[in-house]
Input
Amino acid sequence: MMADQSDARRSGGSGARVSRRQFLQGATAAGVGGLVVGGVGGYLAGNAGSGGETTSVAGSKEPILIGSASPVTGPYASDGQQMVRGQTLAMEEINANGGLFGRELKLQVLDTKAQEPDVMKNVFQKLVSQKVAAIFAPFTTYTSVEYPIVADKGIPTIHINTWHGNVDYVEQNHITNIFQGVPPETSYGSGFVALVSQFIDSGGWTPSAKSIFVVTSNDPYSLSIAKSFRSGMEKQGWKTLGFEEFTVPQADWGGVLVGIRNDPPGIVFFSDYAPGDEASFIKQFRQKPTQSLVYQQYAPSIPEYLDLAGEAANGVLWSTLVGVLSDDRAKAFVEAFTKRFNHAPGFSTAGALYDLVHLWAEAAAVAGDPYDFDKVNQAIANTVHRGVSGAYSFLPGGLTCYAFPDETLDPSLGLAHLTFQIQDGQHVLIAPDPYTIGEFRLPEWLS
Output
């Protein structure tokens, strides 16, 4: 869904409809009405009975089951591990603070593997049959075939499948219980186009040629980002020397690199989200690098990428639409995650799922009953939540979050479109302000 496309939303039963454009034009000037929440504090711990025991509003002490539809095996397993750990940490924190209405949260993880439609439908059906109070499905299908299963039951379902087609499906079918906890993918391409102009205008980089070479996996998400970048650059007078598509997983980049080296572009833009693909590409590129800036979208956020790429990754630019910030709240999360799992979190899905579990729990507390799905969904749709990855705002009433600064100039209402550069083996946040902690450096192969 492009930023200027009308995106009317339902507003929790109020009947009012506000377009995405109207919201984004007015948000920074007037502010937004809604519940602003955030933090790790305890939720409604329940009511003490006559015997001093803690019970929920319904008088039950049974655990509240939460569904996790995550890829714990297959090509995205390393990312799936981050997702599950983020959810686990959030629930353990909530339980340590008394749970929700005095009831423990319990995570039920089902493997979605590579998000094939039949697998996704089966996983959703199993979770629904287990009477879960909410479902977190980080990646979903591009066709949204599993969505009717939860839409029919009204179960609050939150995903981060950065794909505008899922948002369109939810809107077109008037679904009010499925939320995309991340902005659509369309900001990736246009965001890097803007950043390239900043590099040039500031004198930080002079392109060797006003040309690009695009490498992309052939799934709709990656292709959308790649085409958006190509279109944006061509509008600024840049020439596209190559647009190569591949099927995940891919390990041999010899043919692609021949094309790049025969006519070196100013920028190599790589659109994919599998760490193995992007790590193998940059290692092979660095064996005989061209005078090209290299951008690799999203996959470096997963710890496995740097483990595989090693020093070859130094100088690479990458970005994410939902990334862990560098403030005190985020640092506390990283410390807690590392202590709990003996491994630092990645820069994307671990923090996002951690935040979204807390967001759901706070909304359920406001609703007064985690199984009153209508009230919980309405609370989610009207919540602004400040988490370790920034501000989650579904206002004015659902569907998807907003990107800062691509779609809103107010950082308190949008998730920051973060761009990092790998420098000396570390991910250095270089854009946007006010979140930056470092500056762009010319990669050593361009120095």
